[in-house]
Amino acid sequence: MKYLILGAGPSGLTFANMLLRSGEKDFLVLERDKTAGGLCRSTDVDKSPFDTGGGHFLDVKDPAVTEFVFSYLPEDEWDLYERDSRIDLYGDMIGSPIEANIWQLPEDRQKRYLDAIGSAGCNTGLPKPEKFTDWIEWKLGSAIAEDYMLPYNRKMFGEDLDSLGTYWLEKLPNVSYEETKLSCANHRPYGTQPGHARFYYPKKYGYGEAFLRMADALGDRIRYNERVESIDYDKKTVNDAYHADRIIVTIPPVSVMRHTGLPEELAAGLDELKYSSIVTEYVPERLDTKAHWIYYPDPKLSYHRILVRHNFCPGSNGYWTETNLTRFDTDRADKAQSAYFINDFAYPLNTAGKPAIMKRYLEYTSSKDIIGLGRWGEWMHYNSDVVIKRAMDLAKELVV
User: Fold this and answer.
1) Which range has the worst mean pLDDT, 168-177, 214-223, 298-307?
2) Would you call 190 helix, strand, or coil by DSSP?
């Protein structure tokens, strides 16, 4: 065939549908599970939608992306929300990002954070550090680092934070020291807003419904329960059974057992890539909050954030937690007959050596017409709207 697409998550489904729209029908999608959607799958729990891969929402910032998604799940089947995300700072509930909302804390705590931000390295002219933990303190001050950023990231990504690079931290919401002082003086947030400042969520379904409809549009061009065991880079063959002129890889390359024809140094680089696994669990309790999701840095709590389902999914109850698999007690969950879902591949970790490893790997595979795409194919912590856009752009680039 002309195109073989590995993975029926948002990037693979988008690329496949872009092919179909262009008139190209000589392609096939391989999906290891029995349904499409990847990390954006949804199911029903307690008679309401539950996004098994964690909290996923359709950002409004790119009209081309929303128009594409609405062509499968029309706009009138979505609700539009103004983001309400919060941080439970050991009992004090404030808005996110923290540096724009410390004005919501008692004055003595505000002063502690302001003093620490004022003496942070980025405000006193110190050079930018190379270690992750040092960078956080350099950028946000010791108080925010100790109380929030470091414990939260340890819960989410693991204890060895200094194995992470700092190259990706520039995408964090940027709130200057002056803007933080203004927010405390005027009791309102200043600075850039984080992602999903406004977002869509389906009225009657989970987020995964959009991707089920994309999959339906492909008809029999998806094969389910087909795990990718091997890739031959010279023959452009998958599982010794499927051959294509071009292979689009949206799955984690580290999940493939055999890489035939891949230079030894590139295979060794793949072995160095790290990722985290998460568990999502349903809790039937209805919370007295208007927040859509809440972050929890407290190490005593196993989960790092919750998604308050009844605030963005009309007619539902409860919330779901998101927990690093290393912190989740499966024995306790089994005994409670809990509704929980394990996601082996949840977040690609931005380790210090990752950019160089992936640059070499992707340059080599592209020379073989085997192209990495999306969160896992490029090993980048992209949101769903970003991978949809990247898949649309790649299809436009390749299909003449």
Assistant:
1) 168-177
2) coil
Contact 316, 310 (CB under 8 A): yes
- Cα separation, 86 vs 287, whole angstroms: 13
**What sign has the CA pseudo-torsion 393, 395, 397, 400?**
negative
CA–CA separation, 209 and 41 (whole Å): 8
Chain position carrying tokens 């004055």: 107
Please give the model's pTM, rounded to 2 decimal places.
0.95
Q: Which residues are CB-contacts of 309 (< 8 A; sequence separation ≥ 6)?
A: 48, 49, 50, 316, 317, 318, 319, 320
At 155 the three-state DSSP class reads helix
Task: List, as one string, the DSSP characters of 60-96.
Answer: SS-HHHHHHHHTTS-GGGEEEEE--EEEEETTEEEES
The domain ranges of the chain are: 3-79+203-278+351-398, 85-186
pLDDT in tens, 276-335: 999 999 999 999 999 999 999 999 999 999 999 999 999 999 999 999 999 998 777 666
- CATH assignment of 3-79+203-278+351-398, given 3.30.1300.10, 3.40.50.720, 3.40.140.20, 3.40.50.300? 3.40.50.720
With a CB cutoff of 8 Å and minimum separation 6, the contacts of 358 are 273, 372, 378, 379
Asked if 78 and 203 touch (Cβ cutoff 8 Å), the reply is yes
pLDDT digits (tens, 9 = 90+) for 240-289: 999 999 999 999 999 999 999 999 999 999 999 999 999 999 999 999 99
Of residues 395, 392, 391, 396, the one with CA closest to residue 378: 391
